[in-house]
Amino acid sequence: MEITTTVSETRSLIRQWKKEGMTIGLVPTMGFLHEGHASLIKKCREENDKVVVSVFVNPTQFGENEDLEAYPRDFHRDMALCEEMDADLVFHPEPEEMYQDACTFINITDLSDNLCGKTRPTHFKGVCTVVGKLFNIVTPDNAYFGQKDAQQLAIIKKMVMDLNFDVRIVGCPIIREEDGLAKSSRNTYLNERERTAALCLSKAVKRGQEVIAKGCNSNDVLQEMNEIIEKEPLAKVDYISIVDALTLQPVEYVERPVLAAMAVYIGRTRLIDNFIYGEEPAEQ
Ligand code: AMP
């Protein structure tokens, strides 16, 4: 497995592989890898000749008072997992290598206005910019993203269409702990009591999945989901919404594929979870 830290060494490796007719798959991550990331790497391994994993805690997607400094990092453990998953290249640049004195950014309108975009107004600009840059550096045939970050996945798909990136975007299902909590690098912030409290998210997802049905009123579903979160004293809802799965605009009646998404503070940790209704589930 190769490790690169600069754009130029990454490009020359990719150029070599492309010359040899290899297909390239990319899994963008912020590191502190867990089984959620591993599932993306596994899928990428199955579908491509060469597997590239980027490990980069992207400063531009963190807001001013967010957890950039505190974000968990363990590059050695990440390397071991990438090696175990048979990745070919890990791209691990420093922020200076990625941004230098950059003043060009990718901004996506509409889809980034609601859900997580409300509380994190600059987040998706940072995400689109770094993912766009990674697409230009790695020029992957396929790129793998988790349904866990449903808004991010929808936004990346739209960006690829709007800007004509020549890459296929593959969405992968949410990987959960045995008790239902969606795996996340941020779960390490939770103390024991908060870890138990955090189960209210997956319980609300489960309840939502039970009560949602074609033709039903979104508010009825949201009320049931809210009730579960409200029972948990350590939880504070940031948002729970039902939106069109493609446009991410609120829907009143569930008549077409929808995304039911939420962000909930457990203590000071903001966690997200979601489910899609009415669409083929992401490939396993
Ligand atoms: P992150 O390192 O948090 O930026 O995540 C990198 C990629 O892994 C994103 O596409 C995430 O959606 C995906 N991912 C994170 N957690 C999970 C999970 N529990 N299940 C599936 N994919 C995940």
Number of strands: 9
Strand order of the largest sheet: 1-4-3-2-5-6
Shape: globular
Bound molecules: adenosine monophosphate
Q: Determine the mean pLDDT.
A: 97
Number of helical elements: 10
Question: CA-to-CA gap between the ends?
Answer: 25 Å
- Give the helix proportion (percent range): 25-40%
- Oligomeric composition of the shown chains: single chain
Largest sheet: 6 strands, parallel
CATH superfamily of the largest domain: HUPs
**How many structural domains in the coordinates?**
2
Q: Structural class, from secondary structure content?
A: alpha/beta
* Low-confidence blocks of residues: none
Proportion of residues in β-strands: 15-25%
Radius of gyration: 19 Å
What name does the CATH topology of the largest domain carry?
Rossmann fold
Name the helix and strand elements from N-terminus to C-terminus, one letter apiece. EHEHEHEHHHEHEHHHEEE
CATH architecture of the largest domain: 3-Layer(aba) Sandwich
Instruction: Give the CATH level 1 class of the largest domain.
Output: Alpha Beta
How would you describe this structure in keywords?
Rossmann fold, binds adenosine monophosphate, 2 domains, 20% strand, Pantoate--beta-alanine Ligase, Chain: A,domain 2, single chain, three-stranded antiparallel β-sheet, 284 residues, six-stranded parallel β-sheet, alpha/beta
Can you give a write-up of this model?
This protein is α/β, with parallel strands linked by helices. It folds into two domains: 2-172, Rossmann fold (3-Layer(aba) Sandwich); 185-273, Pantoate-beta-alanine ligase, C-terminal domain (Pantoate--beta-alanine Ligase, Chain: A,domain 2, 2-Layer Sandwich). The chain has ten helices and nine strands. It has a six-stranded parallel beta sheet with strand order 1-4-3-2-5-6, with helices on both faces. The protein has a three-stranded antiparallel beta sheet with strand order 7-8-9. Helix 2 (35-47) links the parallel strand 2 (24-29) and strand 3. The site of adenosine monophosphate has 17 residues, from helix 2 and strand 5. Adenosine monophosphate binds at residues 29-30, 36-37, 39-40, 145-146, 148-149, 172, 174-175, 182-185.
